[in-house]
Amino acid sequence: MSIYALMRSPEKLSQLQALYPNVTAIRGSLDDYEVIKKEASKHPVVINTASSDHPRSVEATLEGLKTYSQLHPGDPPLYIHTSGPGFTSDNARGQPVDEKDLKFYTDIGLDLEPCEGFHLDCDKQIVHAGKDENVPIRTVIVFPCWIYGVSDGEPTKVTMPIRIIFPLCKEAGYAGTWSPGASRMRSCHVKDVANALLVIFEAALVGQENNVTPELKFGKEGLYFVGSEDSFFTMYEVTSQLEKVLLARVTKWGILHKKGVLETSDWKPLPDSVIAKFGEFGWAMFGGNQMTEIKRIKQLGWKAEVSESEGMSLLECLEEEVSLLLETEGLV
């Protein structure tokens, strides 16, 4: 099996080739419409883990896959897209919401058409393409919940939520949240997310090779929430644990204080001046309840094995991830 990867940075391109010499790197960015379209037209499988909010690159991918589909009748290409459950956010502005008033979403019978929120500019066009019987494309959208944990890959080991939150806390001088931080959501270790993509990919291959109808669904039904069902967590719990991680390292607390990472150990909501730069995206992601029920992916035999292992929950893994971030930033 030949693997090709779109790479924007020459530095990361060389790192990728050093780690995986059998991977062919394609120089380009998500803004290179024609490059993406051309490459997608040549391959039976495209997996997008680069961005959940770049409609133009998704359009280019789908256009390329349509060409592939037309050139290979009876052998529709596969597109696996990584999105997020941001559309499930109730945007409660970080305020407590009574359990009976929370809206829960399941990925079985889910219809994205009436939904509003982030990522849907990409998601809806993917679903539409997946429903086209004249030029068939087997589309699957994966919606990982809060991704956490240290990965085995290079060069980026720290997950996006921590890369967003930590600079904000550093700017504010304390570990805080959007309003009181009562918003709830599920989480999933990055290794479980990677395994979910692999499970979906393998299920697609099995169905295709054996000429049978796989359990894997495509198009309108090809929507997969991915997350641990152990429990929901709140933003307050995350930032409180972040604060504990920093304070527990007594000798390094002084260093962090001197370097201006944290000015106080008191928890409180982040000031508007700090969170304003993220606008409504920040409120939806960090200030809203995202009540998802993980159903469809389990039908393929997937389990959140790492996330639900002893000592591997989001809160328990924060120390390792934050420590790595501090080292990367040269703060310890």
Automatic annotation (TrEMBL):
Output the superkingdom of the source species.
Answer: Eukaryota
Gene Ontology CC: cytoplasm
GO MF term list: aldehyde dehydrogenase (NAD+) activity
PANTHER family for this protein: NAD(P)-BINDING DOMAIN-CONTAINING PROTEIN-RELATED (PTHR48079:SF6), PROTEIN YEEZ (PTHR48079)
Q: Please state what the protein is called.
A: Uncharacterized protein
Q: From what organism does this protein derive?
A: Tetrapyrgos nigripes
